[in-house]
Amino acid sequence: MSNSFSLRALGALLVAASATLTASAQDLMIGSKAPALSIEEWMKGSSVESFAPGQIYVVEFWATWCPPCLKSIPHLTELQKEYAASNVTVIGVASSERPKTVEEKRAGLLKFIEGKGDAMAYTIGFDPDRSMSETWMKPAKQNGIPTSFIVDKTGTIAWIGSPFVMDEPLKQIVDGKWDIKAEAAKAKAEAELQAKMEPLMNKANQGMQESKWDEVIAALDEISALGASAEKQVVAWKFYVMLQQKNFDGAYAHAEKASKGVFLSDASGLNQLAWMMVDPQLAEILEKKNYELAQKLATRACELSKGKSDEAPMLDTLAAVHFAKGEHAKAVEVQTRAVDLMKGKQGLEEFEAKLETYKKAVENKG
To answer: Strand 123-126 relative to strand 88-94: parallel, antiparallel, unpaired?
Structure first.
């Protein structure tokens, strides 16, 4: 894409694009027996030779050079502490580093782990030849890190996905409330859906590369016709393409329709759309604004996320909307709440910098 694009906005497109990577049938899915562990060396914590009956394991694939992986470290540490008494063992499987000798990789990983100290309070295994990736990630059609697998008390894969969204599944698995048969059926249905989406995703991606916006829209509409699950993956993508077409009225109508349909109870999706309406990196193509709609979506996202771990980013977007509308004092009020929720978390500095910007605007106005 020729236009600059924010990481938040790009995230929605990557979700859609990643569907092409998981389209074919998986050999390792929810309900499969967990493959054996093949760790060359245990770098931290007690070695785990096999999955013990009655024990639950979180197996995360990560690397020191992966920014999202670094963000997941404190989260995994918290989960290990929270569930230590519930027979849960968190294992971080460090995949191969960028081209280096095995000894260089080992030394770099050890230095990283020692530097983290108690902030990385879970078991770490070294997988320099990616033998575990070959038997776990590859057959599960997982192409990005961090990726986590939850192994239940029977040695069965109970869940697969991002460590940032596994809190509820893990809680249910620990509490014995996880319906693995139902989840396996859902995973199978999703894999079948992705297989149908793959050629359409490829067509949309090709159209993006050639700036053939009408072809992209046509492909995305075909994807949306496959059902709500598919539509949710391309809502933000279509919104962006419509902006590229300068079809602003159509784009905003599309966003409002999604807010009453597939995104009705989806805080993340609503937040994504609201942010795209005020994102400074999209200013060059956003010739027609609709801050009222942005505020409506951002407010709903905040309501849905209130009291949850993702409330701060939602407030951050709402504050940005108020600022864009010239409501500087309100932006300060909302961003202050976001900053308070971010205390002690990674990304606090960015939130604080925005708050200072908003405060200066209030001072200048006064």
So the answer is: parallel
